[in-house]
């Protein structure tokens, strides 16, 4: 059905590019391939086509994504939680998945907004929808495993500019003193290539580093709660504009967690797998002695406690948000809030209801 969109396929240096009459531009690119914005002549709508490189592991991930998307679509009749798949086809060994066209990712919106935070009421609405999507997936026994701002898209690209007066003598006429706020809080989750069904033997590494749960790093096995940890990290990032754990190394990552959230439980540290034993010393995290550099130690020491971090950026609802985040970011996976529980948290009631 969609093969007419693709006119010529060119492959060079392991990168794929397409030339077609109805291609409007490139929307994104990654190790998997690229995403193109195209006009669907039959449906008379703009679509996004994810074109996956013809390499075995990427093809396999793409077929997993197709299966998950079809399963989600069969249960999400309103189509308001996850990105909707229109079709898919295999074009010269390249899996091509056709999606509804959405707006920018939360990460791209933050980046173009100079990493300035979202208003707390918008964080509340985005958080509610994200948890509803996670709850929906978990009810179907699916674990996303790669939740992050890059994989959450605003439905609409429209935004307004509002003045930002915090701590500056600049006037609102200064363009850098305005920040963008999405017109609509509606979001959808994307990228289901790493999604898995719940099993007993899940021990391999999942999640993008900044959003990776402690049980994954420590090799303790993981399940649904790893998605919940990622949601907690995402909500903090939306409130502050920056990733909570900006690191690329396991020991530093664990030390950052302890700095922000307090000590890791001894019972978890005693059960670490052989790959994580090198991060321990006498039953505790080998920090700062095991640090790779003084810069690494400084990166950890500059982090505030979670409650202080939130209070620096949130004017109202800070107490409820801190309490919610403490539930989402509990070290012990079995003690972490489930998505359905989190949705009943007072943070999602909203100030306007509490005041009435």
From TrEMBL:
EC supergroup of this enzyme: transferase
Catalytic activity line of the entry: L-seryl-[protein] + ATP = O-phospho-L-seryl-[protein] + ADP + H(+); L-threonyl-[protein] + ATP = O-phospho-L-threonyl-[protein] + ADP + H(+); L-tyrosyl-[protein] + ATP = O-phospho-L-tyrosyl-[protein] + ADP + H(+)
Source species, domain of life: Eukaryota
This protein's UniProt keywords: ATP-binding, Kinase, Nucleotide-binding, Serine/threonine-protein kinase, Transferase
Stored CDD domains: PKc_CLK
Protein family (similarity comment): Belongs to the protein kinase superfamily. CMGC Ser/Thr protein kinase family. Lammer subfamily.
The protein, known as: dual-specificity kinase
Organism: Ilex paraguariensis (yerba mate)
Organism lineage string: Eukaryota, Viridiplantae, Streptophyta, Embryophyta, Tracheophyta
